[in-house]
Design a protein that fits this description.
Order of helices and strands: EEEEHHEEHHHHEEEHE
Largest sheet: 5 strands, mixed
Radius of gyration: 19 Å
Distance between the termini: 32 Å
Strand order of the largest sheet: 6-9-8-7-10
């Protein structure tokens, strides 16, 4: 029997355990150790071993894998994310502009409402769409625009609750970057003991709305 991983499933290996993010069900869960190897071989398109059929059959009952091998598996693999190596917060801040701050506030409000009124898979799918090829990866002009956006978001810190709001803030930040003509990637990472998830935004290896020290505590599981 041929298996494939269901669409909207994302995974990472965190301290030796396989963590899955199911954006369709909006949940994280840890695979049992005994089926983790079979899942990774399927994820990485590696040759199956003798026991894999049995292990993948167990996962089929959870909906993680399916036998419809024509089903697409969307999303960017975490292995394709450029590792975070620097942070924008360390750069010299720019003068705040009220219009930019107002735009940042509107983007955050829309992201906050979207998360509460739409399925998570739809919210994230909006970010997974094709990025216009004309958007620059990194340049002096692009970095100036990124710094201006970051300054605008910092200006809204007193308006929006900061605790446990990393996902709507990062979605809003990503959207404002793309609307301003610069590339940005929303990254979601996880850590264990205790389990925690966190979201931030990168441009290549540059962390845009967080600190390098903090995001290095998390293993990327999703990027858009």
């Amino acid at each position: 029997m041929d298996f494939t991983i269901r669409e909207n499933i994302y995974c990472c290996s965190c301290t030796g355990r396989i963590i899955l993010l199911d954006t369709q069900a909006d949940r994280y869960f840890m695979l049992p150790e005994e089926v983790g190897s079979a899942f990774l071989r399927l994820w990485n398109c590696e040759p199956a071993e003798e026991r894999d059929q049995l292990d993948l059959g167990r996962l089929r009952s959870t909906g993680v894998v399916v036998t419809d091998c024509t089903a697409p598996r969307g999303g960017r693999r975490p292995s394709t994310i450029v590792p975070a190596s620097s942070e924008l917060i360390a750069l010299e801040p720019m003068r705040r502009h009220r219009v930019d701050a107002a735009r940042a506030a509107v983007y955050q409000l829309k992201a906050w409402l979207g998360i509460r009124t739409r399925p998570m898979v739809e919210v994230l799918a909006d970010l997974l769409g094709p990025t216009p090829s004309q958007l620059p990866d990194r340049s002096e002009a692009a970095d100036a625009r990124l710094t201006r956006i970051a300054t605008a978001f910092r200006a809204t810190a007193g308006i929006f609750r900061q605790r446990d709001q990393c996902l709507p803030r990062s979605i809003a930040f990503t959207r404002m970057c793309k609307a301003s003509g610069v590339r940005a990637t929303l990254v979601i990472g996880v850590t264990l003991d205790p389990f925690s998830a966190h979201a931030w935004v990168q441009s290549s290896g540059l962390v845009l709305n967080d600190t390098l020290e903090r995001v290095r505590c998390f293993t990327p599981i999703f990027a858009a």
